[in-house]
Amino acid sequence: MTKYSEAEKAKSFGSFLSDYGHIILLAFFLIFFLYQNKVFFETNQAPPYADTNHHLTLAKQYYRVLFVRDFNIRDAQLHQKYPPLIYITASVFMKAFGASIQNALWSYSLFAIVFFLSLYGIGNFLGGKAGGTATAIIGLSCHFTIYMSHMFVPELPQTAMTTMALCFLLYTDRFKTKLPAYLFSVALALAMLTKWSSAFYLAGPLLIIFIFLIIRNPGSLLYFLPPAAFLGPLGYIYFKYGIDSFRKFSGGIVAQPPWMQPVFIGVVVLLIIYTFIIEKHGSDWFGENKKDAAKSAILFIRCLLIALLLCGIWYVYSLHGVISKLDFQRQEILDTRIHGNEPLLIYSLKQYFNALGLYSIPMYLFAFIGLIFVIVKRKNILEFSMLIFMAVTGTLIISSTAPPAVFYILSVFTVLFVMSGYWIGFTGKLKYPLIAVIILYGASSIAFPLLNIDPQQKAAFNMSLNDMRIGILPQNIPDKTSYKTNELLTSLIQVRDEINEGKPEMDRQPVPLGIYFDDRFRRDRKPDRGYYEREAIPCLMDYADIGGFFRFYIDGEQDWKRRTEEFTDQDMILVYGYTDEKDLQNLERKIGDEYRRKIRENSSFDIDGIRKIKVMILKRASYLP
Questions:
Q1: pLDDT (tens digit per residue) in 106-119
Q2: Scanning 140, 356, 437, 606, which has its CA 20 to 30 A from the CA of 403?
Q3: Which of 513, 521, 570 is nearest to 47 (CA)?
Q4: What crossing angle do the helices spanning 85-97 and 108-141 adopt, rounded to 10°?
Q5: In degrees rounded to 5, what are phi and psi of residue 76?
Q6: Are 297 and 176 in contact (CB under 8 A)?
Q7: Nearest to 402 by CA among 562, 591, 197
Q8: Taking the mean position of all CA atoms in its chain, how far away is CA 421?
């Protein structure tokens, strides 16, 4: 019987299931993490903010399309700029447990589990069970991970799927093993269906593998020529069509020509078949000593084609939305108001360098020790190069294509987590004391938000040990000026019922005509900075099934800020009325200074073209001073 060394066992696919002790420890941390999220979701009453509103609204649209039988699919704007995986997952959770914001957020527990197991898999590959355990605990208990698990934005799922793809990529053993290779294909497709910036991070590792395979067998480059010869022109044709279509019609849904999907599927399927044929008849063209290298290159090509097939169907279907997103990114790159006279790349890199201060000082020390182990041991150099290039390519491409947002580099933290934990398995007798330190650190980090639930607000803050100045860049403690979600929804439903007394005008539902904020309704934690939450109320109304409304018009922000002294006890005014879409197009002109005066003085009045106006005053939540 063949005997394997411990190092070989560590790299064995699925070997981490053989030891129950560390599995119990990992299960404890995962359950503890999910419990912390459960408490946060149940107690936090702050309305969703920033991009969370937009993504939650899209999730509700997908829910209606998938599970509401009388919903007209023609009303669904599913040619989205964003891939669909997080919205479909949230829809399934809402179908199972109820259509609420809490359950949409709960869908992220699935991605947290994937992230946790993927971190363990990478750590196990590089440093055995102890390294995997340490890596997974460090990653899950990082305050940045905890914070992102409370927000319905694509970055945590994208990081989870990217990490899973990287994990299977490592276990392919440089594309010598087929099962992990095919699983990598699926993971890569899922990552691209979560957020397309996954390609930015995985570009580095895939480039390293490509170079390695070509060096092993330079002749393998010939195998790449047919896919490039077909997919290059096809991609150009589709991209050119998308650009022309976008220039002619920049908004709404654009029906795709009937040939686009079948042609794409047919070409990719034929290329996959080509890889099987060439594997059978052409892998020995370069001699017996190069045969294995040739098969690895062919498997690499096949896996990329399978991933392209699985995710490309959506990208072809949503070509118009993808092009519009690219155009939006182009405008942001050219907008000098964002980055001043500096090139966007330099400006973004400076911001991201500061954002790396979100990682705590003790864990940076662990990551530095991990780097020393890489240099001294000189093992798995190719794999560690893949990790480093993952961080480098992702950061560089994102920095040059979009203004900086700290969420965008969450995948870079995956590299930090791995570097901080994998080396624990090589420390001999120090292994268990070091794991004990990580357990203590991780448990206290997850417990910290639970211990800081404000008794007055009754909501867990997005806080962690990093807020206590153990990080390079501590977070600001949130203020307590948020509106309570449940009180806002109660008020919204109440005013809807008041307007609907008797028979509504022409059997129509009232629509929100405008919403006005004073200077305190902000998303930022600092009282003197930030900007208005434009989509919070529409998002809440959507989840309260207050349907039939046109989109909101935000009017008079600057003017309203000058009038806040007249509304010392009010923070937000919502205006309802009966109208139609044509009237709404001219709403900002209609509601001018004269009607603002009427809004301040009356609870209901008439405007030309709008039969009835109802003014609703939304006051601060009752617990606030």
A1: 999 999 999 999 99
A2: 140
A3: 521
A4: 110
A5: -90, 125
A6: no
A7: 197
A8: 24
- Give residue-wise pLDDT tens across range 72-94: 554 555 556 789 999 999 999 99
* Backbone φ/ψ region at 507: left (φ over 0), alpha (ψ -120 to 50), beta: left
How many helices and strands, by DSSP H and E, does the chain display? 26, 6
Q: Give the pLDDT band (50/70/90) at residue 515.
A: low
CA distance 597 to 578: 20
**What DSSP character marks residue 99?**
S
261 phi/psi in degrees, rounded to 5: -65, -50
Q: What is the pLDDT of residues 291-340, one digit of tens each?
A: 888 889 999 999 999 999 999 999 988 888 888 888 777 777 776 666 66
More confident residue, 22 or 593: 22
| Spatial distance between the Cα atoms of 196 and 556, rounded to a whole number of angstroms | 36
Which stretches does DSSP call E strand in 345-385? none
Bridge partners of 471, per DSSP, are 360
State residue 345's pLDDT score: 84
Higher pLDDT, 251 or 36: 36
What is the crossing angle of helices 410-421 and 361-377, to 10°? 60
- pTM, 2 dp: 0.83
Residue with tokens 């624990």: 424
The alpha-helical segments, DSSP class H, found in 142-197 are: 143-148, 155-171, 178-192
| pLDDT of 250 higher than 70 | no
Give the residues across from 454 on adjacent strands: 459
Residues 6+ apart with CB under 8 A from 112: 30, 33, 34, 37, 140, 145, 149, 156, 160
Q: Residue written as tokens 């208990």? A: 141
Selected residue with higher pLDDT from 219 and 596? 219
CA dist., res. 277 & res. 577, Å (int): 67
- What is the residue whose two structure tokens read 């203590």? 440
Task: Give CA separation, 31 vs 36, 38, 129, 252, 450, in Å.
Answer: 9, 10, 19, 43, 14
What element of type H or E holds 454? strand 453-454
Of 34, 207, 44, 18, nearest to 110 by C-alpha is: 34
Spatial neighbors of 537 by CB under 8 A, at least 6 apart, are: 47, 488, 492, 512, 515, 552, 574
For 360, left (φ over 0), alpha (ψ -120 to 50), or beta? beta
CA distance 576 to 514: 7
Average pLDDT over the chain reads 76
Residue among 515, 511, 520, 549 at smallest CA distance from 535: 515
**Which tokens is 395 given?**
């950061």
CB 63, CB 172: distance < 8 Å: no
Report how far apart the first and last C-alpha atoms of the chain are (Å, whole number).
Answer: 75
Highest mean pLDDT among 226-240, 399-413, 512-526, 608-622: 226-240
